[in-house]
Structures are given as C-alpha cells and as structure tokens.
Amino acid sequence: MLNPKSLANGQEQHETFKSSVTRKKAVQYDYRHTDGELFSCVRPTLDACRQAKENWISKKEGASMIRYYLTQRPPAPGTFPGRPVNLKSFDSREHVEEIGRPAWGWVEYEWPLTIKETEDYELTRPIAFNIKDTKTNETLATMRGKEAADGMLAYMQNKYPEKKLRIATSPKEEERAK
Questions:
Q1: Do 42 and 91 fall within a single domain?
Q2: SS3 of 5, please?
Q3: Residues 49, 133: one domain?
Q4: Could you give the CA distance from residue 33 to residue 39 in angstroms, rounded to a whole number?
Q5: If DSSP codes are grouped into helix, strand and coil, which group holds residue 126?
Q6: 107, exposed or middle or buried, with CB in 10 Å at 0-12, 13-18, 19+?
C-alpha cells in the first residue's frame, strides 16, 4: 500500500490495481516534488502517470497559463478573443479528459478572460473534480478531468472501504467552465 508521507523530496512511488468500478487495471502514482509538494494521479499506465507528472512540473515551474477549450468550432480568426499566448488545433474533434467532452483545440492566456468573453466565444475551462467523504464533507483529493477523478475514486474506494465517497464539483468551478 502506498504511503505518500514516507516519500522524500524528488521520490516517486506507484502501485497497480484493478478497479472494482471499471474492472480495468490502473496505476496509482505519487511523486514528491523537490519543494515538498505532493503530486498524485491515477492513470491506465505508469508511462501515462509519469507524463502527467511532467506536465504538472512544467506548469508548476513555468508561467501559469489559463487554458480555454473550443468545443463548438476549430480555432480560427474570430473564434477566440485577442491574441492568446499559445494555441493548439486538433486534426479532428477529440475527447478532452479535463472538460469531459470533445473539443476542436485550445487557446491559452496569461490572464483570465471575462465571463462575457468566455460566453461570447463559447469557450470552456477545465473543471476541478473533488473526491469527498460524504459523512464529513472533507475533500480528500482534487483531480482535473472526469476520467482521472473516476480512477481516483475507484482507487480510494478500494483503499478505504469503510468510507462513503463521492465526486463533487464546486459551483465556482462549474460557473467558470461555462
């Protein structure tokens, strides 16, 4: 069983398990950054976990960009406001785990867009999914992406069978994602 408290800075640990919910094999992964912050995720493979860790480190150490997904049309002039710092167009509409639905691509800005801009251009922000103990309402984990949250919920239900857990999103996150 994993014990994140025993991880020294710069160390990782992982274990493979079979989800009782999805009946699929998954990997629970923990990494303690050199600054002491803990990163945890559940993905189908160890390589996917390590890629998620690298993405987290890049975002943590780099400039913090705010990503908006284009779910209605591909990125093109007039489909997003101003000049984004980064832009990615997918070859076709792809399912995006962070928002739980298909998108044509994404744009990133250094500062958040206004709600009006987000609505006018029909952009979508990622939602944070919280794993909560229904008895105490304590948030035990926060994940980006519904699939990641489902995987973490399955792992935590296996690890803590005595707890009744659920996935919740905060109203603020849901409002920002619109």
A1: no
A2: helix
A3: yes
A4: 7
A5: coil
A6: buried
Query: Can you give the residue range of the structural domain that contains 20?
Result: 4-62+127-177
Report phi then psi at 60, rounded to 5: -65, -45
Q: Which of 83, 106, 124 is the last residue of a domain?
A: 124
CA 145 to chain centroid, in Å, comes to 4
| Residue 59 neighbours by CB distance under 10 Å | 12
> Which residues sit opposite 168 in a β-bridge?
130
Residues 132 and 55 in one domain: yes
Four-residue CA torsion sign, 137, 143, 149, 155? negative
CB contact set of 98 (below 8 Å; sequence gap of 6+): 67, 69, 126, 127, 144, 145
Q: What digits encode the pLDDT tens for the residues 84-112?
A: 988 999 999 999 877 878 999 999 887 77
Q: Could you report the per-residue pLDDT of 150-173, keeping only the tens digit for each? A: 888 888 888 888 888 888 875 444
Handedness of CA 147, 102, 56, 137 (dihedral sign): negative
- Distance in angstroms (rounded) separating the CA atoms of residues 91 and 177: 23
